Amino acid sequence: MDVKTAFLNDDLNEDVFMKQSEGFKPEGQKHLVCKLKKSIYGLKHASRQWYLKFDEVMKKQGFLKNQVDQCTYLKMSGSNFTILVLYVDDIILASNSLDMLHESKRLLSHNFDMKDLREASYVIGIEIQRDRSKSILGLSQRAYIERVLTRYNMQHCSSSVALVVKGDVFGSFQCPKTEVEKEKMRMIPYASVVGSLMYAQVCTRPEIAYIAGMLGRYQTNPRLDH
Q: Residue 71 pairs with which residues in a beta bridge?
């Protein structure tokens, strides 16, 4: 589900003033300013205020906030449950009960102006794959990974079953030696490459955590052998 104009739902806990908009300055009152009654887009703390408003509503409706990931909420009813995940103004719902799922949607629509996007298939760069006949739910970042490979001119590289094997060593001996090699290396944004790998690692590819960690440590101190 999508929250329409999410930041406009927020309540302000302090006095905030803004200049009058262009074309909205009555004669004799151009020296006045506007006092905001509600949050608007552009405020530095608008996203924070929206989260506090959303959190307040969810708690009143019996949802428990996850203490590790505080944008994830859980509601239980006997053996049934509904999991709700908030990402800015997008909401993902998962439940083992259609009744609870529909009730959660009604609750959200009652408190906020919502748009029901139906069954989720693609969220923040992650494709959701379903095989209902086998009761399988999968997550894939294939499109994201292909974009990363293309961005760094590695779309034609060969895949490997083992990312790293016993005996592999990374160290300064692999650093460019000649001016030609150094110039070629300058064209590769190493920190950005490692960051792209880490995003895939966190979301759907935990098996690359070891090699991504090694590359990150090498980035911190390339003179040490790892």
A: none
